[in-house]
Amino acid sequence: MASEKSKILVFGGTGYIGKYMVKASISLGHQTFVYSRPINHKTSPSKIQLCQEFVSMGATLIHGELKYDQIATTIKKVYIVISTLAYLQVLDQLKIIDAIKTVGNIKVRNTFFKIFYVAYFVS
Ligand SMILES: NC(=O)c1ccc[n+]([C@@H]2O[C@H](COP(=O)([O-])OP(=O)(O)OC[C@H]3O[C@@H](n4cnc5c(N)ncnc54)[C@H](OP(=O)(O)O)[C@@H]3O)[C@@H](O)[C@H]2O)c1
Predict the structure, then answer these.
(1) Which of 87, 92, 93, 117 to mutate to test the pocket of ligand 1 (most atoms within 8 A of CB)?
(2) Which residues pair with 82 in a beta bridge?
(3) Is there an atom of ligand 1 within 6 Å of 21 CB?
(4) Are 71 and 92 in contact (CB under 8 A)?
(5) What integer is the mean pLDDT of 88-112?
(6) Which structural domains are found in the chain, ordered by start?
(7) What is the C-alpha separation between 61 and 66, in angstroms, rounded?
(8) What atom of ligand 1 comes closest to residue 12's alpha carbon?
(9) What is the pLDDT of residues 6-37, one digit of tens each?
(10) DSSP run (H or E) holding 24
(11) How much is the pTM?
(12) Is the CB of 122 within 6 Å of ligand 1?
């Protein structure tokens, strides 16, 4: 049976764990979005290279800060959200959850909040 394709947004996708999430999502044929902080003079060459690799694989990069309005605007484009943000950004994930609740196009099915990552799946 063919699996259903979706639109998946990954927060923390450039990270140690997130990059595997992003690559898996792309390889499974999902339209994949990576929400990442803007590139500036402090950005490491390895992160820039990884972002370029994601784009070459077909992902869409969305640069933004972990601010509610920017997050909510982005979440409107997708049906599934995965967060693999760094441990110190655990509380920032509350903004993601608030945006998901407000936007309303994503139904909460599983939450591994504060444990490993946060995943929300459409019905
Ligand atoms: N690494 C492990 O071995 C391991 C093991 C078990 C559990 N975990 C858990 O898995 C989750 C992800 O861990 P990880 O090691 O993959 O994370 P990470 O590589 O340290 O960071 C993931 C992403 O978080 C974003 N980020 C980092 N600092 C930020 C900041 N100050 N503001 C906003 N965004 C920031 C970055 O994305 P952008 O730069 O693209 O914005 C980064 O690529 C954490 O909750 C961790 O506790 C990790």
Answers:
(1) 87
(2) 10, 119
(3) no
(4) no
(5) 79
(6) 7-120 (3.40.50.720)
(7) 15
(8) 23
(9) 899 999 999 999 999 999 999 999 999 999 99
(10) helix 18-27
(11) 0.90
(12) no
